[in-house]
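Translate sequence into structure tokens.
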Amino acid sequence: MVAPLSYYLILSAVLFTIGALGVLVRKNPLVMFMSIELMLNAGNLAFVTYAYGFGAVGGQVIAFFVMTMAAAEVVVGLAIISSIFRIRANVDVDEVSTLKG
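Result follows.
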């Protein structure tokens, strides 16, 4: 027995909302990156759900490219965070935004 597609879309919307709230509320960059990953995975769930519902492969291909982009984003983001942590002992988003120049 397969659950209706609307359940998957509701789950995707809930996960996206949790990720958006995590980005807006938290100040820790690692938690913000995890929240962005949660938002990307929610989008992937929606793409795959629509692909399954319409019998197309395009949504699964898009989800694969989004996962590839998310992996690259994590590598670059963690490299930036680790380099900032080497310079400063504190990694706070508000303090990092003052590093202009």
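Note: Helices lie at 5-25, 29-54, 58-87, 93-96.
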